[in-house]
Amino acid sequence: xxxxxxxxxxxxxxxxxxxxxxxxxxxxQLVGVIGAGWALYAFYKSGPMPVPFLxxxxxxxxxxxxxxxxxxPAWLDYVGLIALLVALFMSAGALGIRWxxxxxxxxxxxLMALLLHVYDSIGDSTMxxxxxxxxxxxxxxxxxxxxxxxxxxxxxGVSRLKIAVILGIVAVVFGWIxxxxxIVAGILLIIxxxxxxxxxxxxxxxxxxxxxxxxxxxxxxxxMIILLIAAIIDLFPLTGMVVGLISLVALWLVFKGWSMIxxxxxxxx
Length: 269
Prior knowledge:
By secondary structure, this protein is an all-alpha fold. It has helices spanning 2-8, 12-15, 23-46, 51-66, 74-95, 102-123, 126-147, 152-175, 180-203, 210-233, 240-268. The chain folds into two domains: 1-98, no CATH class; 146-269. The chain is built from eleven helices and no strands. Helix 7 packs antiparallel against helix 8 (152-175), helix 8 runs antiparallel to helix 9 and helix 10 (210-233) packs antiparallel against helix 11.
């Protein structure tokens, strides 16, 4: 559902009435509609849900599907966006979600944060950038909760992820400085990439994540490699669509990887 929310975020072009069709965003929205609809149906079959939540979530998904049709009014996206945001806010209480430990909640927050971050490379608009910054806050909160529920190897991996994020933030700041700042930013991003890669490597050895969580950490490493390939391709002109589609694959791996970590935490703790 969060992915569908991201695809409905407006950008400057759409607000000005300019055409903003993107194949990668279209594919993401289609995946979001199918995934959210399937999840809502699964929850509906498992037991009764509050009618307001069902109407908001179901209505938002239907609007998301309708907005895939060309020349639909722009205000429809905003209605769907609001409905889905309210449904997301209500989801924990409405669906009766209860985590066994704080680590699972942390993994869930990290999953949402990384989804927002990776989608920013697909949507590539001002609003997705703002969403990615919100995701950064969720990322730190989630990692803090996760670190409390894993063993030494897992905690080591989480600490490395935090360092990588901090380096990324510093790199963004240096990137605003002309000439020398860009060089420093590039070096920091490379160091951060290596540290994050090592962090997931440590998590692959964490017994507290179980075999499923360890495999999930492996998928997250693969997603990093795919994003690196996308970044290299992005250096060449007229490759935006290719980069977006590659990033979509990475997005799926991020979702799958952290979902497996979450399941591992719930199952083995």
